[in-house]
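Problem: given the chain below (67 residues), write out its structure.
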Amino acid sequence: MSKASELRGKDIAGLEKEVTDLLKAHFGLRMQKGTQQLANHATLGETRRDIARAKTILAEKRKGAAK
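Solution.
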């Protein structure tokens, strides 16, 4: 789980990489769920929230950089 304080310390490129990595991880979890190999279904929600958190901070940074 990535904390907001950790994400705020990253630059825009680092946040974009984090979002990409989280999306790949979420896709992998969805595939595991589809093949009934996923033991803990709560991880799907956690990664979805992590993606949203990272995207929100990325949007804030982009908005701040535009000013």
